[in-house]
Amino acid sequence: RSLLGVLVLFLIFPVLTETHIPTSMQRILHPFSDIPPPSRVHIYQVVPGSVELTRGDPLRITVRTGKRQPESVVASVSVSGNVWRSIDLVRSDDDASLWNGVIEAVDKDFVYRIVADDAQSPRYQVRTFPPPIIESMRLTCVYPEYMDIPSRTFAEGDIAAPIGTRVGFELASSNALAGAWLEVGEKSQALQVSAT
User: Which of 106, 102, 70, 99 is nearest to 87 (CA)?
Assistant: First the structure.
């Protein structure tokens, strides 16, 4: 009879509490893992999750919730690991299950999690790195043929050259780059990036 009572309780527990047994079992089996507790509201997606950012860049967060819509969604942020502050996310006008928020000018590493009423996400790590700087620069001037002057290489950015001179740039950056551009006035030209 005791076993039957436990079995009945086990079967009706999800109905009474609207929770999921698999989540509860995972928390029991893995007590030290960052597994959020069961909840009535469901967080299905957090973008970008854990990420690396250049210092000074914003972090744009998008959250998708389930059919049961929360009253509010916040990003709970901690720099020290102890003190948490909340940043409100805004519901999309086009999709009631979509929430968006921005943390401007990120300059430190931190962790964050999403809280939507009684639901919370795992913790995500944001790591920052300094923006790249130009450590060295070489400019090679190839003069017009009529001048009969051999090409010259300069280690400074300010040069004077006659019209028709072709200038080649070779720059060394402090960080690996995904891309680089040369801007002259309103024109922009992509530069070739190579690893050394």
Answer: 102
